[in-house]
Write a structure and sequence with these properties.
By secondary structure, the protein is mostly helical. The chain is built from 9 helices and 2 strands, in the order ααααβαααβαα. It has 2 domains: about 170 residues, Up-down Bundle (Four Helix Bundle (Hemerythrin (Met), subunit A)); about 55 residues, no CATH class.
């Protein structure tokens, strides 16, 4: 029975993605975005429980990717699609939102077969991309930002995140092997900055946190580069 416990959390993640899409159809974008967060919590616990119970399975790995595709690939695409439809009279442009789903699928497939991504990531993980998108409904609710969430910004976000997910950019993970300041200082600073940003701006902070993640990962990579002799 215990080998199925992580899969229950994974299926919960999938359920959150499906319910989130329903919320988007019902014009409730805030709750749609919140389903991304709920799915991310369950996504964390499925891996956590697999490690605790020592029940990692091949079917669990595949199921995890399928759930992530819905919650962190398809649901964000529907959110951007919704706002693109509001932002343009062109009937074709909103469908570009599904580039997020396409590149999420590529990202997940690449991650599953890439043995280089054991201690760090190459490209932006799908949950991070989805968190970026989840902030859009909250920005749209602000009176001064309604005009800012326009077709050009939305398309730029779509292309930017799609590229990042399949890029070869090295991004750190939080798999610590003992915390040492000299070794992990950029991770620690990023974690503290993220807490401050989230405490100050809540959901509005997610794009800033993701951009900071890219910057601090670059700094962390430079630390590991060997000087040219």
């Amino acid at each position: 029975m215990k080998k199925h416990v992580p899969n229950i959390f994974t299926l919960g993640n999938l359920f959150c993605g499906a319910i989130g899409i329903v919320f988007v159809f019902q014009d409730n974008l805030i709750w749609g975005a919140m389903m991304i967060w709920a799915g991310a919590v369950l996504d964390f616990f499925d891996g956590f429980m697999a490690r605790i119970l020592n029940v990692k399975t091949l079917i669990g790995k595949e199921l995890d990717s399928l759930a992530d595709m819905v919650t962190f690939g398809l649901l964000p695409s529907f959110i951007i699609f919704y706002y693109l439809k509001l932002s343009t009279s062109n009937v074709y442009i909103p469908f570009l939102a599904f580039l997020i789903a396409i590149f999420s699928a590529l990202r997940l497939a690449k991650f599953n077969v890439d043995e280089r991504q054991t201690t760090s990531f190459l490209g932006l993980a799908t949950p991070a991309s989805a968190f970026f998108v989840s902030a859009i409904p909250f920005y749209y609710e602000l009176p001064n930002f309604t005009s800012f969430v326009n077709v050009y910004i939305l398309l730029a976000i779509t292309v930017f995140l799609s590229y990042l997910m399949i890029s070869e950019i090295s991004l750190f993970s939080f798999k610590f092997s003992g915390i040492k300041w000299q070794q992990d200082k950029w991770k620690i600073i990023f974690a503290l900055l993220s807490l401050v940003l989230f405490a100050s701006f809540q959901a509005l902070s997610f794009p800033l946190i993701i951009l900071s993640y890219l910057i601090f990962s670059k700094l962390d990579n430079k630390k590991n580069e060997k000087p040219v002799e």
